[in-house]
């Protein structure tokens, strides 16, 4: 039973403590909670000194367990506690104290002796010592539905507790003082769990008290009105007793109000003002969220600048979670227009910050900032300047859809909410329109044009789709605006506006028909709900019924404008084509086909012709009944075009060099149309390949074919070949069919190869791309998937063709920008980007041939050597090619890398002669490229062991390949290459460094090892790079029989090195593979000639070599047998040592751990500038508020001295001091 239902606890006299007289009317000054928390407990505890609920069996016995499980109604739980409080205040409060302690995750329990004899600080210190620090989790942060429900129950318990106690118990100067004092102490704890839980409890307690204060204020107002009404009565009717009762009630309410205000002041000054800037973002977020609730709930008391400033300051918080709470709290305030006058000063001070937060790096924060700006706009249009609005306008083009949709809502409120409906309807009637949205659509078009982002019409439509969907679906009004004729005295759309409106209209049609955002917005197509699916079907039917009739008229009006026609011809792909037959609208279909044919006859622009071709393809779908009608019209059109094309070709070939411009135009126009149609339609029965092939052969033989005709003929022939391949793969081809297609492909490849030497760059580029595509299509992959019958169609490029393709790439891709700009000084940035895009496509096409083993991998050496020089333009393509080729063949890829470096070195020798300046930028460039190549081998040296060893062998052979003609006392010509090769030494495992060094010494004479002149420095540095760790390796070999303890001791003194643990037979096989590879090498091998894949021998026989054949490690290496035996010894030593290596590594890592305290995060700064365009906002804000909006609350008398967690970050002096300290620390 609650105290509300107990008449004995309603009176004022129950406010005193038990055993003492009721307070008189002359109240003594109220003690602070901290003063009264010491020595106020007088009740009796149970034998064990722990307050408990009675429970049977597994029933929860503590208040914490009851609230956590949430099985009982919260009001009944609170009523039981109130009943126990009436019986024994101390035990009930002890239960409540333990509730807060246990909610913090503390395993300790406050006993009755502690409660009676210890101060709060001592109790909290004792609980801190018993806190479980092994885990950082506590109930408020634990995952799972149980703990999520616990948080809700925890907050509800506090709210219900105050609600049920609001008429008496909270005024007894005992319960609330004890609770507030405890929560104040816990909120100042260094333990995050205590601080977090107590802050949440205190803020919810404050919210409940605010609600009580609001009710008291309402009762006071009602009592005052009753008193005034009674007093204003005439003397005869006035009831003096009632007046006295009303006066007594008003006085009592005022006293209660004063006590509630004291409690709220204690919580606000003792907890909020310190925790709203806590180091933990969750705690700061709790404070800001609750102060927003107070301001909305009791605006008369809290909605003023003294409280609003805390929200305004925290808008600069470094954590998006806290900024988000600020914005949502403000949204709740700005939603109520009656509160706008009280928010005027805050709006003026923090408007710029709020507008800048629309660009927040956290998208959720940016969305809420835009919504808040929209609410400000709704409340007062004068509050935002034009510049503020423009900052939000451009966000409708954001790639993040929620941001764009929020900006679309703002745009809708700003532009489309101020029109006069009556005036719009009158104008519509006068112009004969069926829709009054004409002016709104004009405004949308003007906004789109002024934004100067014409290619983003789809984004604009998607942004406005949720807020302005009715307007965007008003296709009747859009069509009327486009079709209406000019009327004297009224302005019609300009040509630019018409183009923009058509583009927007097509985007709205696409959005309605597809019901998903455009490409680049969203993560993909989501599953539509039943309601969304129904809306999509209705919209598709609506747009189909309208544009079936309107589209032919629009095409008729704009058929001469290629841009408008290309956009309009996209509309049929969104039709529900069944409407043609179901609605008996075949005449409109005929009208559409007629207009498309007229468009084809009038235009030769490829985008228009491709749109016409695609429309025919859609209308010819076999699933629709209109297919036959459209197919007839299409066949007639193609028949006519092919006849005209054949006739034009004959005339052009007959006249040859005497052909005039009309003959060339006739051939080119027909060829463009047929090429566009051949892309989407199978035109093989018209045999276009023959005519195109004749044109190409004639151009090659005569050398005078116009480049546009050659380009289009190549493309049309390519489509013809692909359609023939499609027919063969879909059916059961005969041998004759395969032979015929092979003959066609072979002849076309020959023509393309000849076109690579054409004088016209567009022709060469087209031929190159088609060659790459065809070689990819007709490669060995053609017969995969059970298509072995297509083997006759497989083409492998010979070395001549491969060289021509490679030379084309070198000549047309790896060119300097300066060389290109010299061709046209007026070339703008857009054209340069387009040219770079084209070159990237050329390079990618050739690299695909390398990746798929169509072109030999060594050809990639000429590509790899440009990796550094053209890194910005092609670095990603070259890097991906390198990665894919390594997956195909690690060894051959490594040989290709070293070959690319050798080519660069040879080029440098040709330029500078044998006496290289090793400090020059050219040599440094080669070394840097080698370093980059070395990084691509990754960290797993076991996987790349064989490849890296091969690379070093080829590099050594290249360095000593040519002797110096001046005599043996001079270094070999290529010796400087060893300096480049040393960049790869770090990728050798330690035992292979010894092996490579032995191989190096085979090429060295005795005199070489003794030379120390500068010209011999590359050899010296390379030897040193191989000997790094060599002594350690030698020591590890000789000490292989020593004890494990001795081995560990010998390794402690040296710095940690990277170790690799071998895994069973895989490691042995890999060792043997490298061993076999090196055994096959002899002095007669030559590099860098033809890079052949090394022949691997079986590893089975070598794995069982007898150990007695291993040579002494101290013996002079040099022979292949010694080298092979040494490798075997290293292999066995590595296997025996793997366990020790792993243990040493773990031990070394374990010594680096540093224990982190619970409050380590408190050392982090709280605020930082997180905006893209708000540098210096925090400093300006502090200067602004240094002398304004000072909080006007009575000083707290129960705040004990304590060590602050953080300095006051809103105090300018503290900030300056903090900055000086940070600068000193950096120095």
Automatic annotation (TrEMBL):
Region feature Disordered, mapped onto this chain: 1-56, 1031-1053
Keywords: Cell cycle, Cell division, Chromosome, Chromosome partition, Coiled coil, Nucleus
Biased composition (Low complexity): 1036-1048
GO molecular function: chromatin binding
Source domain of life: Eukaryota
CC annotations in GO: chromatin; chromosome, centromeric region; cohesin complex; nucleus
Domain SCD: residue ranges: 272-357
Residue stretches in coiled coil: 236-266
Location(s), subcellular: Nucleus; Chromosome; Chromosome, Centromere
Principal location listed in the UniProt entry: nucleus
GO biological process, one term: chromosome segregation
Pfam family of the protein (one): STAG
Subunit (UniProt): Part of the cohesin complex which is composed of a heterodimer between a SMC1 protein (SMC1A or SMC1B) and SMC3, which are attached via their hinge domain, and RAD21 which link them at their heads, and one STAG protein.
Family classification: Belongs to the SCC3 family.
Described function: Component of cohesin complex, a complex required for the cohesion of sister chromatids after DNA replication. The cohesin complex apparently forms a large proteinaceous ring within which sister chromatids can be trapped. At anaphase, the complex is cleaved and dissociates from chromatin, allowing sister chromatids to segregate.
Protein name (database record): Cohesin subunit SA
